[in-house]
Amino acid sequence: MLFTNDEKKNDSGVVSQFCVALGSNMPSKFGDSLETLRLSLKDLQNLNIKLVAVSNFYETEPFPKGLGSKFINCCAIFETHLSAYDILKHLHVIEMRYGRTRDQRWGARTLDLDLIYFDELTIPDKNTLKKWIKLSPDEQIKCWPSELILPHPRLQDRAFVLIPLSDINKDWIHPILGIAVNEMLAKLDSYLLEEIKKL
């Protein structure tokens, strides 16, 4: 399989760091949302994936607001020799293990695992990422990517990702926007930050 420079498979000697945003707003067969997140953090790790840091847990409003129960969210940073595509497949397997279904976008879910960034890679390319970043809120609701986009195109808009991410990697710099996590947070409306409660 051929890869571009931005998506090539890691060599066995290269260690990459990636961030996952975890969320849940309904119980799984393993317990309530908080217990589900705690257990899934353990299940995400294997011989090829090492946990580096976990944020605090937060209670957050669903997106769009009013659509279902409140979420419990956190972020975690891992290290791996695998590619971003391998990691995405792994996240989907773990979601399915916890009963995640994909019949409704932004619906209630037992476990949501979003790959937020993978090193400083832009996947599939910078122009595609810029296109998704520029979408208006209304356009975001109508369309979503069918391919892997990294960093996550809505990262800079989501307090429920940026606040926990700032706990563990506030200095990470967005490869397109050129600003750090705390600077992205500072650009958000204050009401978005006030809605998020640390557990």
Short description:
This protein has 199 residues and is α+β, with helices and mostly antiparallel strands. The longest helix has 14 residues.
Secondary structure layout plus pairing:
Elements: E1 16-24, H1 33-44, E2 49-54, E3 58-60, E4 71-80, H2 84-97, E5 112-118, H3 126-133, H4 137-142, H5 159-169, H6 181-186, H7 190-194, E6 197-198
Antiparallel strand pairs: 1-4, 1-5, 2-4, 3-4, 3-6
Describe this structure in words.
By secondary structure, the protein is α+β, with helices and mostly antiparallel strands. It has one domain: 2-Layer Sandwich (Alpha-Beta Plaits). The protein has helices at 33-44, 84-97, 126-133, 137-142, 159-169, 181-186, 190-194; strands at residues 16-24, 49-54, 58-60, 71-80, 112-118, 197-198. Mean pLDDT is 88; it is low at 1-9.
Descriptive tags:
six-stranded antiparallel β-sheet; 19% strand; disordered N terminus; 6 strands; globular; Alpha-Beta Plaits; single chain; 7 helices; 199 residues; alpha+beta
